[in-house]
Write a structure and sequence with these properties.
The protein has about 270 residues and is α/β, with parallel strands linked by helices. The protein has helices spanning about 10-30, 45-60, 80-90, 110-115, 115-120, 155-165, 180-200, 215-225, 240, 245-255; strands at about 5, 30-40, 70-75, 95-100, 125-130, 140-145, 170-175, 205-210, 230, 260. Strands 3-2-1-4-5-10-9-6-7-8 form a 10-stranded mixed sheet, sandwiched between helices. The two termini are about 35 Å apart.
């Protein structure tokens, strides 16, 4: 049963996640499921009744926007990231979408607090959305950063799938933190270009050297007014980056643009 899971906490961020989820669900012709997770420390019975009422209000508001699919919901109890991951796996979800928040509000809502942990625990792709992102237009520009890591190309099939759904243009960004890895990055970029050509996806390519991959990715994303950035949980590692957290962590915390994060599959080193 393929469907799109949206983690909610009744914040504006989670409503943005619902709005994006509806757009994708309509294009994929898939159902949506809203998931609320009650903390084990909360009073379940009295709280659950209030949550049920609020969820029904959201369904009443948003379900008419779905075309030929339906919106369901479930209330679970436990750790947010683990419960979302468990439900996504059981339902064979296509993706999970959650809202995140700016620095000032990041610690206030459980989805925002648990966004990166959800990515770590969930096997399918996860999209994180900021509460102030503008959804008045389609996902026209998708940024796909490519570095020297073996996993970097694994994001391309999903980026291609989204590009086909939205008739988007993919912006390939080749990134290298030293001259020695430039040939590897160039090789991977060329492979990505050939893949996109095979599937008739419009694309453009840019390459740049940088000290911090996160900084370079975000600066380029804002310069092209990107609507979605597709990344891996694993990315090229550099000491200056690791000190600030993983690339994925930095991107989730800092990006004002929605991020789709994908787990790498096991790769045989001989396939490089």
């Amino acid at each position: 049963m393929e469907e799109i899971i949206v983690g909610i906490d009744f914040s504006r961020g989670s409503e943005c996640a619902i709005e994006l989820g509806i757009d994708i669900a309509n294009r994929m012709k898939q159902d949506m499921k809203l998931v609320y997770v009650i903390s084990e420390s909360d009073d379940g019975k009295s709280l659950e009744k209030d949550i049920e009422s609020k969820i029904k209000a959201l369904i009443s508001k948003y379900s008419p926007m779905l075309l030929k699919t339906k919106m369901t919901h479930t209330i679970s109890r436990g750790k947010v990231s683990q419960e979302l991951a468990s439900i996504a796996k059981a339902d064979e979800a296509t993706m999970v979408i959650v809202g995140t928040h700016g620095t000032s509000g990041y610690e206030k809502d459980w989805i925002g607090r648990n966004a990166y942990k959800t990515i770590e625990d969930t096997e399918c792709p996860v999209i994180t959305v900021r509460e102030n992102f503008n959804f008045n237009k389609d996902l026209e520009r998708i940024l796909v950063p490519i570095d020297s890591s073996m996993e970097t190309r694994q994001k391309v099939p999903m980026a291609t799938k989204i590009a086909k759904l939205f008739n988007s243009k993919i912006h390939i960004l080749g990134l290298y933190t030293s001259e020695s890895i430039m040939p590897m990055v160039n090789k991977y970029v060329e492979q990505v270009e050939k893949y996109l050509q095979k599937y008739s996806i419009e694309y453009t390519t840019e390459k740049m050297g940088c000290e911090n991959i996160t900084d370079a990715t975000l600066e380029y994303a804002y310069s092209i007014n990107a609507d979605l950035i597709v990344i891996m949980t694993e990315q090229e590692k550099r000491f200056s980056n690791i000190m600030q957290g993983s690339y994925a962590q930095q991107m989730i915390h800092r990006s004002m643009i929605p991020i789709m994060t994908i787990h790498p599959e096991e790769i045989n080193s001989a396939a490089r």
